[in-house]
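Example record

The entry below shows one chain as it appears in the dataset: sequence first, then structure tokens.
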Amino acid sequence: MLSFKNILREIFLDLLSLFGNLFFLFSKKPKIEPEKIKKILIVKLYALGDCVYTSPMVANLRANFPHAKIYWLVKKYSRSVVEHIEGIDGIIEWQTPKESLKKLQAEKFDIAFSTYRSPLAQLVLWFAHIPIRVGFAWKGRGFSLTHKIKFRGDILESDRYLKLIEDLGLPIKTRERRLIVSQEEKEDIEEKAKTFGIDLKHRPLVAIVPGGGDNPQLVMPMKRWATDRFAAVADYLIENKKAQVVLIGSSSEVELAEKVQSYSKNKLINITGKTKLEDFVALLSIFDLFIAVDTGPVHMSAALGVPTIGLYGPSNPDILEVATDKNIIIRKDEEAPEYIPEKVFLRNFAGKSSDPVHPSMMKIQVEDVIKAIEKILS
């Protein structure tokens, strides 16, 4: 349904863009000379999965600007993901606009890459006195940018962000999403796993996230799958694969995990809400298989090289994830409403559907997930 609040926001942004385009009408477009670029800023504040999508930018900026240091502007909630992206020289944590602007101005960046379409997010770079500002010119709203890149909502999200580099005439060296975990972190998380009752010698070790679609910026419970079906999958893993099944998730998903356990015929290891966000990336790396709906941890797991099974309904996996033999995507309803960039600004996709589980998710059967499990744990 159309959101009145979103319509008012769109009107405000259109008016802002009208005056903004007039103000910046005669601004000069500076030349990008890679050998002169010493300091680069990537702006992606949230969420967990979105930071994973943005990660290939780092390796490509490193290749094209070999003498530059690369910094990332992020909010605290998603910082733990950014800390596991190789090639970043520094992280700036977004606080209040005043404090953050002061930090950005002090760093004296040569060039910034904004992954957002909002003119407000792009204006921050101008106020931060960054001379070269690259970002998406969507609906005429990129008025404060020096280099305007066409927004593509119909391609893989990580490829969309790479367009910020590619459309400057710079080559793309890799499209790989990759997170890394240090040996020290591995050893530390293995010790913590033992305190949760996880036996690291008992394999396969499988993680299930019963929740998903829940982050500080947007809550989308319509992405979730039925808890009794997750329980049936857990029982299959235990009874047929002799697996050790661990339920994980945030503190807001504790009730969902408890429901899965109540439906299950077997004892599951439930650590939902018991882990710290800064330990989460390392925790994901210990599993042999990760099963979840479209949520940040499923994309994080794939970037760690952990085999994954992702369940999709309202969101379109074609613009989110790349299917491989070890990264299986299940979507049974091609006609489901899509949470895509062109629609989300005017339509409210955050609310619950009329049923506890969205109809597009209910089309995914337990047998569909079992078939995927057999491909990975055969």
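Notes for this example: Residues 328 and 372 are 7 Å apart (CA to CA). The first strand starts at residue 39 and ends at 43.
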